Acetyl-CoA hydrolase/transferase family protein (Salicibibacter cibi), 414 residues
Amino acid sequence: MIDKTIPASEAVQQVKSNDHLVLAGMCSEPPTLIRELIQQRQRLENVTIYNMPLGTPCEYANPEWDQHFKVNSFLLSGGLKDSYKSGMTDYFPMNLSDIPEYMEQLRPDVAFIQCTPPDNEGNVNLGLSADYTLSLIQHAQLVIAEISHQLPWVNGRGTISSTGIDVFVKGSLPPNELPSAIPGDTEHKIAHYVAELIPDRSTIQIGIGSLANSIIGALKNKSDLGVHTGTFPEALIDLYENGVVTNEHKEINQGKIVATCLAGTQQLYNYADCHSNIELHPSDYTHSTATISQLSNFHAINSAVQVDLTGQINAEKIKDFYIGGVGGQMDFMRGAMASKGGKSIIALPSTAAKGTKSRIVPTLTSATSTKSDVHYVVTEYGIASLYGKTLAERKKELINITHLDFRDELTESF
């Protein structure tokens, strides 16, 4: 194998003004390459950076550097808040299933990715995420890969020939981590209700965060669950190790936990390393309705910022600021609707702002997911069953799971 490894400074020197640069998604943003890009910013103008960050600091999104960098983001994390407000960052509302195809349309000038060192056959593994990275590698004009010895080698479709990489750089920084969030009493109450909706032998999709961790914990008495999800959270390890998750009743990828990325600490990364029953696949497979519809009893469990009285879901915006992205929510909700015996579940606390604002509101001005794709909405006050219900019936169901302080106000709103 030809050694294509060069210093980071030399590799990043190939980025030019006005380039479109795409970073690997989620926890896979390559930290050494990004640090070098920032070091070289003074020679660059109007470089457009595309990202989908999770657990990453997004240091390049400094509003003072807006003459050097612009950011187009598929996921507005906290590290982008100031740059979004300043206008340096713009938001891309796009389903995760569609991003690989968008890479083909974009044909970016440069890709920054992470990978493991090559094996004896000259193959590398993408480690923490497959999502849109395979498509990015295929369609970018220049692919620069940061080699990290701390990345796991994860089975699935994340193994590629090193011939697909133009330049390698030795990484000097550890991969990004996302520590587990600790749930509170409200999350535990919600999780109890969600668990009631999940029968044995179901296949589940679930996200990350304190509520997701609590729901995962509430499933400990279930049996023979399968997992087909977007982000693999660290809390799932216990369910697998205790035999709750077996994946034996999945019609496809039987026996395998399937995700598109890992999001956790080095403990999760080490666990997934060469694990025979954990696979990462591109998001145009994991999030495709055609894929999910082959799984019976698929239960999509997602959260939201707000739900209105018709059942519309806002999962990305607080006031005028986007706090996340479309992500895979709509993909998985649609998939659940297409699955025989499937259910789409939205779980959220009934209030925000320390109990001063209701998360269930009369109407939404901005919706992430449609009212026709929701089976159940769950708060700490119970379960609202929306599927097959009229608008009037939905309103009654949702008011019944609203915080007591806001029920009269919502009742008077219609």
User: Anything to note?
Assistant: The CA atoms of residues 96 and 181 lie 23 Å apart. The mean pLDDT is 95.
